[in-house]
């Protein structure tokens, strides 16, 4: 089924074939060539951009309706086609050492430049959530989880104007080990937060030392 080690590197030809196939099939494709996963609710930045625009990614209306997605698509469409491939390997749990401030949403510019535009500071489209919500990570590869760890920006931090840093985050939830499945869920309590926030999720996969990093933009109701 899923190879034990899936490498992101592709030949130019396979990239071209992937791009052509993506253009032809658009949103009909899920997972493309690499099956891993992402935060799907609330959606990570690149999963959200793929989900909203994958079948219509050349529509110029995106520039005004969803400008942060637009700049991401313009920067590198493969960040969206490979929404499930934003990970690092060999981090050994030292996430803060591996990921400099300002690059949290690209996993420390992993596979640069593919995911770099996910760090762009601006008004990313938000998912509306009540303050107690369930976060879902979709794992197409059934890697399992050593843990899910969830942070949220502290109240007062404005992700629309400030680069995301570790100092802006407060830990709010962590799971234990989770057996391989297609989806993992964790209950999150955002406390008294209101308005725009970034939910930052680390998924430590269990099949090898493979760590995933997801920025989900959320508008908290305060309820
Ligand atoms: Cu994987």
TrEMBL record:
InterPro entries listed in its UniProt record: Cellulose/chitin-bd_N (IPR004302), GlcNAc_Chitin_IntDeg (IPR051024), Ig_E-set (IPR014756)
UniProt GO molecular function: monooxygenase activity
Tree of life domain: Bacteria
Annotated keywords: Monooxygenase, Oxidoreductase, Signal
Signal peptide span: 1-35
One Pfam family, short name: LPMO_10
Transcription regulation found in the keyword field: no
Residue ranges annotated for the Chitin-binding type-4 domain, each copy included: 36-218
The protein's name: Lytic polysaccharide monooxygenase
Organism: Amycolatopsis mongoliensis
């Amino acid at each position: 089924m899923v190879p034990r080690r899936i490498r992101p590197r592709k030949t130019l030809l396979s990239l071209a074939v992937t791009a052509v196939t993506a253009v032809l099939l658009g949103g009909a494709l899920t997972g493309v060539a690499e099956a891993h996963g992402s935060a799907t609710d609330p959606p990570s930045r690149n999963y959200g951009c793929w989900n909203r625009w994958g079948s219509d990614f050349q529509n110029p209306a995106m520039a005004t309706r969803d400008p942060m997605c637009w700049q991401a698509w313009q920067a590198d469409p493969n960040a969206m086609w490979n929404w499930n491939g934003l990970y690092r390997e060999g981090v050994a749990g030292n996430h803060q050492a591996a990921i400099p401030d300002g690059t949290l949403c690209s996993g420390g510019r992993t596979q640069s430049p593919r995911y770099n535009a996910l760090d762009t500071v601006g008004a990313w489209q938000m998912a509306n959530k009540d303050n107690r919500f369930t976060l879902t990570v979709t794992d197409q590869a059934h890697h399992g989880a050593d843990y899910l760890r969830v942070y949220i920006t502290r109240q007062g931090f404005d992700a629309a104007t400030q680069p995301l840093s570790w100092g802006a985050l407060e830990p709010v939830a962590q799971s234990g080990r989770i057996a391989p499945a297609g989806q993992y869920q964790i209950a999150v309590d955002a406390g008294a937060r209101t308005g725009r926030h970034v939910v930052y999720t680390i998924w430590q996969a269990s099949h090898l030392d493979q760590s995933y990093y997801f920025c989900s933009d959320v508008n908290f109701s305060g309820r």
